[in-house]
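REVIEWER CHECKLIST
Item 1: Sequence provided? yes
Item 2: Single chain? yes
Item 3: Sequence as submitted:
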Amino acid sequence: MTGRDDTGPGRSGEGVRPGTGRDRAEWFTVLDAWGAAGRPYREIADWLTGEHGLSTWWAQKLIVEYEQARGVREAGVRPGGTFTVTASKTVGVPVERLFQAFVDDSLRGRWLPGISVQERTVTHGRTARFDWDDGATRVNVGFAATGEGKSQVSVEHERLPDQQAAEDRKAFWRERLAALKALLEGEQR
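Item 4: Structure as written out by the authors:
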């Protein structure tokens, strides 16, 4: 089966050896011999963890790289066929203030206008999960203090239907997080 190069630009294939005992090309040969290109993700994962003793993390990493190299999966596609994008920003405010910018409806409306989200779960000061206003996608947000008066927000928008939606949403989040940073840091002055 053809696809992109097994190692790709800047990827020697050796990076997986310390965690798996083989380099990427060796794993791809093993997976090809087993017929992985025609098998479901879960079956491959079970085989790699059960038969080869890989951790779930290493199995997932190898499967994604293998499927992309063999043309079975586009970059950014999750096993269910949807796309996920991420964006992050460091902001010069304490983590509590950054957290409030997401969970407080009034404050959120100042940097994310016109968007309605439904809160799913919150771990105070650490994570917040929302259903997006389209009803089909979800947003997971993580917060971390990075120094005195500085914190980082990481946004993951999942269940996007296609590559174009993923690209659009990534650009959207970059722009909105920049607006959030300007708003919160402007309040500090």
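Item 5: Key structural point noted by reviewer: The beta strands are 83-91, 118-123, 127-131, 138-147, 150-160.
Item 6: Recommendation: ____
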